[in-house]
């Protein structure tokens, strides 16, 4: 059982409050202070909560590693964190955390080549190259669309069992994108989806990309009348009170042929807690206590 879930049940806390208590170093399991909400603990673990204990200083470079070898590093990006700095030169980004991790783990001057990006409020699997040769290899695979990328999303309304969006995209104001109008020249974009579960006023979908355009999933689903829940840019202008804390879009799987071994490599990022909580809230009561839910049981990574 996950530590945060065990703490929530044992002390009557919300999952978010339980996670915060764990990360602050205020929870002991069997007399040992644990800091990772996703740590596995037995159902009968002896837990103790110390709300008055001074909070542990959070490590700036916290990183969840899904796979690491001499060629590449695959990590689980949290929502709310930029992949790389913008013109504002933010210091805390996923890239800076990856460099910090590699430096402290291996020493020297690490290299973390930027292969692709995820939107700030999108979570999930992302790969960095540890050499220029690997960077060029992976960038070529992305250009060829030979990377296996699966996203999962919570979108508004009832989606078909499966389908595809093939509308070209054009750039509008700022970084926004929109579907090209008749006679307007845009960039080819193909998004395929499969409905995993129908919820209360929403759908849980699996999405695979044949192209990798900016905001592609968000624009395609919005144009079809099924905006990603919590999307402040392409969703409803007025967000519902108590709605999702961010856009419910997660890069669950990333797969490709390894640049050195030539063998298939795949990494999967588990659904983050905010996604799970939103999914649970949208389920009909009879389904919340039913069999294992889609998205559960996905192997996670190690937190460092």
Mean pLDDT: 86
CATH topology of the largest domain: Pseudouridine synthase
Q: Which regions contain 5 or more consecutive residues with pLDDT less than 50? A: 287-292, 295-299
Cα-atom radius of gyration: 20 Å
Largest sheet: 11 strands, mixed
Order of helices and strands: HHEEEEEHEEHEEEEEEHEEHHE
Structural class: alpha+beta
As for the number of domains, it is 2
Distance between the termini: 20 Å
Could you please describe the fold and organization of this structure?
Strand 4 and strand 5 form a beta hairpin. The protein has two domains: 3-49, RNA-binding S4 domain (Structural Genomics Hypothetical 15.5 Kd Protein In mrcA-pckA Intergenic Region, Chain A, Roll); 64-303, Pseudouridine synthase (2-Layer Sandwich). The strands form three sheets. Strands 4, 5, 6, 7, 8, 9, 12, 13, 14, 15 and 16 form an eleven-stranded mixed sheet that branches. The chain is globular and about 65 Å long. With 304 residues, the protein is an alpha+beta fold. It is built from seven helices and 16 strands. The protein has helices at residues 3-11, 15-23, 94-106, 132-143, 216-223, 273-282, 285-288, and strands at residues 27-29, 32-33, 47-49, 64-68, 72-77, 113-114, 123-129, 148-156, 162-165, 169-171, 177-179, 191-198, 202-209, 249-257, 264-268, 302-303. The two termini are 20 Å apart.
């Amino acid at each position: 059982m996950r530590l945060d879930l065990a703490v929530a049940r044992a002390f009557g806390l919300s999952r978010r409050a339980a996670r915060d208590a764990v990360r602050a170093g205020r929870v002991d399991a069997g007399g040992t202070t644990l800091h990772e909400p996703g740590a596995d603990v037995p159902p009968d673990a002896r837990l103790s909560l110390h709300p008055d204990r001074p909070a542990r200083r959070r490590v700036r470079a916290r990183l969840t590693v899904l796979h690491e070898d001499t060629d590449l590093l695959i990590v689980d990006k949290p929502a709310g964190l930029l992949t790389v700095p913008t013109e504002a030169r933010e210091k805390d980004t996923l890239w800076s955390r990856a460099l910090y991790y590699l430096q402290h783990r291996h020493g020297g001057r690490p290299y973390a080549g930027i292969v692709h990006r995820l939107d700030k409020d999108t979570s999930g699997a992302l790969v960095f190259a540890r050499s220029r040769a690997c960077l060029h290899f992976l960038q070529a695979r992305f250009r060829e669309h030979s990377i296996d990328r699966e996203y999962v999303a919570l979108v508004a309304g009832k989606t078909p069992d499966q389908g595809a969006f093939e509308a070209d995209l054009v750039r509008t104001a700022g970084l926004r994108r929109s579907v090209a109008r008749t006679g307007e020249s845009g960039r080819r974009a193909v998004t395929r989806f499969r409905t995993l579960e129908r919820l209360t006023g929403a759908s849980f979908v699996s999405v695979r990309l044949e192209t990798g355009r900016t905001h592609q999933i968000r624009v395609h689903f919005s144009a079809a009348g099924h905006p990603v829940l919590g999307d402040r840019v392409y969703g409803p202008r007025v967000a519902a009170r108590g709605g999702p804390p961010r856009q419910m879009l997660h890069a669950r799987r990333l797969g490709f042929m390894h640049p050195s071994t030539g063998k298939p490599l795949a990494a999967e990022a588990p659904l983050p807690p905010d996604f799970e909580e939103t999914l649970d809230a949208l389920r009909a009561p009879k389904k919340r206590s039913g069999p294992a839910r889609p998205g559960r049981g996905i192997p996670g990574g190690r937190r460092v």
